[in-house]
Write a structure and sequence with these properties.
Layout: E1 8-12, H1 17-28, E2 33-37, E3 51-54, H2 60-69, E4 72-77, H3 84-89, H4 91-111, E5 116-122, H5 147-165, E6 169-175, E7 177-179, H6 197-205, E8 212-215, E9 227-228, E10 230-232, H7 233-248, E11 254-258, E12 264-265, H8 266-277, E13 283-286, E14 295-296, H9 301-306, H10 316-331
Parallel strand pairs: 1-2, 1-4, 2-3, 4-5, 5-6, 6-11, 7-10, 8-13, 9-14
Antiparallel strand pairs: 9-12
Length: 340
């Protein structure tokens, strides 16, 4: 019974791709977890630990009740829309959910005297770096080129302004390219009509999609395709636990990149999928998309110097292997669930 008296960690969007992996790690180490998710894109079965409250982060009455009922000391905020092309087509949807709902959530947290807030942000806040050959440091000027990046940057700014006006500490984590699935096979990326390269490539490899579209083969890179810093979702999840420990040990508000500090090209990703799967996937080459930088790689000195965090799955093969394994699991009718 003593464990039930622990302050809880509220994970918004905890039924989604990244949030569910964080909930799994929190639960495995004995944290008291409550998940708030409207299940618009998340899966109830992916919440492996804690309690699930179905609802929206913009519902201030609901959030206030959850904070009080569970004695929440930390909020980890993942609930957001994340598809860049959709944000261009439906900008108000993104500003409504990603920005306005975050503002509502922060107001309730501030009124409740919340101790810690950990925010899921994005490298899209950087826009297109002037020198794509250099890793993006946290000090790089922010210049988003789409409503998704803008909606996240606005939330960052609100957090930073609130930090100056309250006692609540925060960590902002700027993700680069998240990929892969839980190595235990318990959960994975189940998003319908996913757009992330490795997820799509794995679906093509297993026949769920006919072909993979490659946008741009004439970039100023070694093989002409864009380079990105891919981080395994379990390593990203462990970075959130490291951020939690940092704040619980008295750490002050900060912002860090989450990546490995090196990149892989689109062709290198395809080669890895072909090799691990055992046969080539069908690829269709298309012109560049507007706004895609040649390379986007995280500078990672700050996260390593600030947190006690060491990646355990930092190889392209590990990312691809777990992605393929999860797609096979889904094809066989499998669902999220605890390992046997």
């Amino acid at each position: 019974m003593q464990d039930q008296q622990k302050s809880a960690i509220l994970v918004t969007g905890g039924a989604g791709y990244i949030g569910s992996h964080v909930v799994k790690l929190l639960g495995e180490r004995g944290e008291r977890v409550v998940v708030l998710d409207d299940l618009s894109t998340g899966n109830r079965e992916a919440v492996l630990y804690g309690e699930l409250v179905e609802g929206n982060t913009g519902d201030q009455t609901l959030v206030a009740n959850v904070l009080k009922r569970y004695d929440v000391s930390t909020v980890m905020h993942f609930a957001a829309h994340t598809i860049v092309p959709e944000s261009v087509e439906k900008p108000l949807k993104y500003y409504g959910n990603n920005t306005a709902n975050t503002r509502s959530l922060l107001e309730v947290c501030d009124e409740a005297g919340l101790e810690n807030f950990i925010f899921s942000s994005t490298a899209a806040t950087y826009g297109i770096p002037d020198d794509a050959s250099k890793p993006c440091a946290e000090t790089l000027a922010t210049a988003p080129i789409n409503p998704y990046g803008d909606s996240k940057l606005m939330s960052e700014k609100m957090l930073q302004d609130l930090d100056a006006a309250s006692d609540m500490n925060h960590v902002i984590l700027r993700y680069f390219n998240v990929a892969g699935s839980d190595p235990d096979g318990c959960i994975g990326q189940s998003t319908k009509n996913a757009t992330l390269l490795i997820k799509v490539a794995a679906e093509v490899a297993l026949g769920k999609r006919e072909q993979l579209y490659v946008y741009g083969t004439d970039y100023p890179t070694a093989d002409g395709t864009g380079i990105r810093d891919y981080i395994h979702v379990t390593d990203l999840a462990s970075a959130h636990l490291a951020a939690l420990d940092y704040l619980n040990n008295g750490g002050k508000s900060t912002l860090v990149n989450c990546g490995y500090g090196r990149g892989y090209s689109v062709k290198e990703v395809i080669d890895a999928v072909n090799r691990i799967h055992g046969s080539p996937i069908k690829v269709v080459e298309e012109p560049r998309r507007a706004g895609d930088p040649p390379a986007l790689i995280a500078a990672v000195d700050k996260i390593h110097n600030t947190f006690d965090w060491k990646p355990q799955h930092d190889s392209l093969d590990a990312i691809v292997d777990t992605s393929l394994a999860w797609e096979r699991h889904l094809m066989a009718g499998g669902k999220p669930g605890k390992a046997a």
